[in-house]
Amino acid sequence: MKIHTVIYIASAAFAVLAISSCTHLDEGGSASGNGSSTDNPPVEEPGKEAPVFSEFSLSSSSGSIKSLSTDIGDGHVSVQYAYGGDISSLKATFSTDAAEVSVGGKRQVSGITVNDFSQPVRYVLVSEEGVSAEYTVSVRFASDVPVVYVTTPGKATIDSKENWLAGASINICNLDGQVDSLGATSIRGRGNSTWGYPKKPYNLKLETKQKVLGMSKHKRWCLLANWMDRTMLRNVVAFEISRRTKSLEWTPDGRFVDLVLNGKHQGAYYLCEHVKIDNNRVNITEMTSSDIDGENVTGGYLLELDSYYDEVNKFRSRYRYLPVMFKDPDEDVLVKQQFEYMQNYFNQAEAYIFSGYVPDSRYMDYIDTDSFIDWWFVYELSGNTEPKHPKSSFMNKDRGGKLKAGPVWDFDWGTFVPSSASFLDSNTIWYEGLFRDPAFVRRVKEKWAESRDDFKGIPDFIDSQAAMYEESARKNGDMWKINIVVNCDESMEWRQAVERMKTSYCSRFEYLDKAIPAL
């Protein structure tokens, strides 16, 4: 006897992953949602067919919102739900040849039973002959991006960017319907001004280092909201410019995703690597508190120049009064000898750069000039004037090495917009002094000639990214209206904003391509 049932979940795109042998889920079933490990389906008997879903859809408890589309493949079902919907209480309508359907040991009635889809939900199907199959059902909102599900304990609100909320669960539904369980995570808010915006950014800290969406293993990740960026592309394009330089050794990698937080879809986010010292990130020596003399005290250090000046360990530089903060080693590791070494090193480099109208050439013993030039290229090409404050301006120094610029960070404010025909950052941080050195200027010209063809290809990169993420970006713009003027494209249609971004970049490139050789 066949049972025919149909499931509607209102407000989410939904992916069901059939898994008779779901090895991509962990044994503890942490990606199982309401289908906990208390379900113990019978062992499939040889020669007998496993039951399947032939139809599956979702709707809100009241039935007022229904899923937009369903794609049932071999072992998975993908259901697309209304963008921005709440999926914490949805009912499924399904058709199946199974004699029994259950979730977490609870019998499911098509069109009646309500489940919480804040995390992927595992369905167990059993035929009359006792053959079983498992489906992990996940909700999707746009066809072009993975979905990240984060659920906090008791669905507690994340209301702090200082204090971690521990014990949250995190799963990712890939485009092919497979679910990656990342286990437990801690989450908190992030950003300075961005934390005050309607669409919140977050930091994630996994319990163990893991690869996420093909990116290198790590515990720490960022969910950038990009609320003020109509294109949603500013950070990813700036990061690509950085990757095309010759001497910036690491640039954050990232992926566009849709975020579901405690059952509520939050829109499009950029899940990216956190700026940290690590073999897979800023690859310099990770210090301990005992590294206090000789070669050991010379690195590695990760510094951030930022006018918010809100880290525990910080100093103002002696000659330029720059706000310098220690990101690594952090306050639990950094000791007096390390602080004083890096402070003296920074001040000595600055003293040589500003020793007179023309810098003392000994500054070259202290800083890696190629990295400072490439860093400047990225900020000039993107039109980022944050170094003027300065804000989000990183430097790093490895053990026994020179101070380097980078990595680059934070490009959603006032970038890729029409700008004046002038250099924007040539008098920021140390560049005012550096550009007075003929040797530095010569090297700027040489490096521009080496990289200009790579930079020239950025408009094609913008087109490729826009094509991949258009659906999610457009829907996000409808969901999150921008009520401040930052980039002056806030009221534009999304494609128009992307074209403006591309045109602005081309104009900026053309200006620099004439101005740099003429220095």
Compact overview of the structure:
The chain is built from seven helices and 22 strands. With 519 residues, it is of the alpha+beta class.
Tell me what the structure shows:
- By secondary structure, this protein is of the alpha+beta class.
- Among the domains are: 13-140, Immunoglobulin-like (Sandwich), CATH 2.60.40.2340; 147-273, no CATH class.
- 21% of the residues lie in helices and 27% in strands.
- The protein contains seven helices and 22 strands.
- The protein has helices spanning 234-243, 336-353, 369-382, 431-434, 438-456, 458-479, 494-515; strands at 13-18, 53-60, 69-73, 76-80, 90-96, 100-103, 106-107, 114-115, 121-126, 132-140, 147-151, 165-173, 179-189, 202-212, 215-224, 254-261, 264-273, 301-305, 314-316, 323-328, 393-397, 403-405.
- A hairpin with a 5-residue loop joins strand 12 and strand 13.
- The longest helix is centred in the last third of the chain and has 22 residues, at 458-479.
- Residues 1-33 have low confidence and may be disordered.
List its traits.
single chain; 519 residues; alpha+beta; Immunoglobulin-like; 7-stranded mixed sheet; 7-stranded mixed β-barrel; elongated; disordered N terminus
